[in-house]
Structure formats: C-alpha cells, structure tokens
Amino acid sequence: MRPRDEPPGERGRERAADAIAEGVRGVGPGEIPARLCDVAVELLPVIGASVSLHSDGMPVQLGASSAQAAYVTEIQATLGDGPCQSAAESGTPVLARDLTAGQDVLRWPVFAQQATAVGVRAVYSMPLGNDTMCVGTLDLYRDTPGDLTDRDLRTARVMAGMMTVALMALPRVEEAGEPGDERWLSGLAIDHDQVYQATGMIMAQLGVGTDEALARLRAHAFAHALTAVDVARDVVEHRLRFDVD
Question: Which residues form the ANTAR domain (predicted)?
Fold first, then answer.
C-alpha cells in the first residue's frame, strides 16, 4: 500500500475520477454539487465540504455535505471575509491550516472565531474555473489544524477540476429540461437577486454607495446572527429598514 503522503500520480487521479463518477451516477443536476461535496469528504481527510459560485464578491452556496459545512460557508458570505473569499479573489488555493492560533487567526480573526466555535479548525479553499476566471470555490473543512499532504492536495485539485466541469455543464434556468432542474437554479438566482435588490434599497435609504450598503447589510446580519440572504429578504419585503444614524 502506498504511503499517505505519496503523490497519487495517474492511478490516484483515475481513482478520484472513478469515485466522482460513481458519486453522481443517476442524480439530477440539482443534486450534483452536494453529491460532489460528499465525495470530497470520502476521498479526503476532512469533515465537510461545500461549493459556492461567486459573483461580485457575494458567494452563492450550491451545495454542502452537512449542515456544519453549509453554516461555515454562510459565515463567510455574511462577513464578506474568509478563505473562500480570498481564494475567489486570487484565483489560487488558500489553505487556512490553523484557525486556532497564528497567522490564519490574524488574517481572518472574526471568521476564525466563528468557525472554531462550531468545530472547524482548518479550511482549504480551492478555486473553480480556469487561469483567467474564477467562478467559485470548493471549500474543505477539518476539525483539527494541519496541512493537507501532497497527495491530498492533488486530490483536492482534481476534485476542484471535476467540480468546475460539472458546474459548467449544469443547465441555465432558461435551458432547464426537467422540472426539478429549474427549481433549484431559479431559487439560487432569487437569493442572489434579493441581496442586490436589498443593497440598492439600502443605498437609497442611507444615501451611500454600493460597497457601504453591502457592508451595512452584512454587519446587520452578523450582529443579529442571521445570514446575508435572511437580512436581504427582510429588506426587500419591507420588514427591515436602514435609517441614517
């Protein structure tokens, strides 16, 4: 048997590809992101995984392997900060090896506090896309600090590549053929659109720019233990108004 830290090579990549293919066999487009997250947890020494699309700095979660993984992803969306945000901005993997101490805590202090409070102590964010464009991230969560081995990191890269291909192959809302396809895609679009509609409303209420309005929305969400989408929905449905201090 090969040592844990030995690079997987072609055989390892084939095994990962086979596991991915088996994991998504027979499922509809709406289930693919979550299924791929489940496969990532099976292949790698992590306790959770999630995948998000990123647009204008706001990640839209497509799927997660568990409620814990989904929650940590939402923390990053609400804060506008964290490894997944950094990976999306840089287009390169961001490895937060230890959220309990050291450099990673200094880089993302609030996120580190929130993540460790729910048992996540390391995050590995892999960009999805190509050399010129990052469309999202695959985020891997572990309950102990530490590095991924070379073998695990290469497997994570394979997973990110497969995830990118799968996401690019998903039908757009207007192209969806099966009834279930359109429901999940349009639901994501509604969440995303509500955030930007709410941002526009906050801009008008406070007389501020886009960045400030989105920051206010995120700050309110964090202060009240809500997600950015929750707050956006309240603003759009006129249950919440931002007034000038």
Answer: 181-236
Domain boundary among 136, 170, 204: 170
Distance from C-alpha of 167 to C-alpha of 6, rounded to nearest angstrom:
29
Domain count, the chain: 2
Percent of the chain with pLDDT over 70: 77
Structure tokens at 140: 């891997």
Neighbour tally for 170: CB within 10 Å = 16
Does residue 66 surpass a pLDDT of 70? yes
DSSP string, 90-152: HSS-EEE--SSSSHHHHHSHHHHHHHHHTT--EEEEEEEE-SS-EEEEEEEEESS--PPPHHH
Based on the fold, state whether residues 74 and 128 are members of the same structural domain.
yes
Query: What CA–CA distance (Å, rounded) separates 10 from 13?
Result: 5
Domain limit, last residue, from 170, 194, 218: 170
